[in-house]
Design a protein that fits this description.
By secondary structure, the protein is α/β, with parallel strands linked by helices. The chain folds into three domains: about 5-85, Arc Repressor Mutant, subunit A (Orthogonal Bundle), CATH 1.10.10; about 90-160 and about 265-290, D-Maltodextrin-Binding Protein, domain 2; about 165-255, D-Maltodextrin-Binding Protein, domain 2, CATH 3.40.190.10. The protein is built from eight helices and twelve strands. The chain has helices at about 5-15, 20-25, 30-45, 60-85, 105-115, 130-135, 200-210, 275-290; strands at about 50, 55, 90-95, 120-125, 145, 155-160, 165-170, 190-195, 215, 235-240, 250-255, 265-270. It is rod-shaped and about 100 Å long.
Length: about 290
């Protein structure tokens, strides 16, 4: 037979209060109605749950109450978990990000989400800028951390991190021993930059330099792009965050006058899911705490 939760709550209340009248007062029902419904339940079960005068639990009653407490706790938890899921506090958010976000921005954001919403996970995928735009439009990503994302009416955005650009060269490059450089010092060297995979970022870097450099197109993903620096006059412009994570044969050189990198922004489609909205709120707090 099935027993509804209401009757379980009645029996547990009588056990907790040690009497039918006090239980009825707690439940805000009439004592005769409570006694009648518990008696009906006992007859349906074929067991006595309580002794009367004085009221006390029988052995069958103790077993019933112990099981009822577990069921009621699970039921209450189910309601709360369902409400929390509706608020976005359980589940997963898919985050795409560019390489330069991997070492500082992504861990900072994930830590903030874990601290505030432990039931929410952030699935992370690294990609080129173009891939991230396409993935966001195709709903493969809920959120994207990228630089120079296109301005589109369906995108919301939040500045997340600001930093300077640095120059990265191979150990054999003629500038490798310099403490600092200017954009003019780079004339004659070839800037490694992807033409197809990161057009917005490419345009921003060329604008920041103030001159039109010789550009060598690269198609290598992530850190493999640094392989093209060895033994030549190639260079890269990367955000300062990456300077602490270079391979051993790469050399970081700051600019004599600070040159800002394009802002790292958190970008999402308008009307984000409840879970994505919680991550956006976490990002807003962390951007305010450590945006630069």
């Amino acid at each position: 037979m099935s027993i509804d939760l209401r009757l379980m709550r009645y029996v547990v209340a009588v056990a907790d209060e040690g009497g039918f009248q006090r239980a009825a007062d707690r439940l805000h029902i009439a004592q005769p109605a409570l006694s009648r419904q518990v008696g009906d339940l006992e007859r349906a079960l074929g067991v006595t749950l309580f002794t009367r005068r004085p009221t006390g639990l029988t052995d069958a009653g103790r077993v019933f109450v112990a099981s009822a407490r577990r069921i009621l706790d699970d039921a209450d938890g189910l309601v709360e978990r369902s409400k929390a899921a509706g608020r976005g506090e359980f589940g997963a958010v898919r985050l795409g990000f560019v390489t330069s976000a991997a070492y500082e921005a992504v861990p900072r954001l994930v830590d903030a989400v874990r601290e505030r919403h432990p039931g929410l996970t952030v699935d992370q995928v690294e990609g080129w800028s173009v891939e991230l735009v396409e993935g966001l439009l195709a709903k493969r990503f809920d959120l994207v951390l990228s630089r120079s994302m296109p301005v589109r009416p369906e995108f919301g955005r939040l500045p997340f991190h600001r930093e300077d650009l640095i120059v990265v060269v191979g150990a054999a490059h003629h500038l490798a021993g310099r403490d600092a450089v200017t954009p003019a010092d780079l004339v004659g060297s070839r800037l490694l930059l992807s033409r197809r995979h990161m057009p917005g970022y490419r345009a921003a870097l060329l604008s920041a330099l103030g001159h039109v450099p010789e550009v060598e197109d690269t198609r290598l993903p992530g850190w493999r792009r640094f392989d093209e620096l060895a033994g030549g006059e190639n260079y890269q412009l990367v955000p300062r965050t990456l300077g602490d994570h270079l391979p051993a044969d790469a050399v970081m050189i700051p600019f004599a006058d600070r040159l800002p990198a394009p802002d790292l922004e958190l970008v999402w489609r308008r009307d984000p899911s409840p879970a994505a909205a919680l991550v956006i709120a976490c990002a807003g707090g962390r951007a305010a705490d450590g945006g630069r």
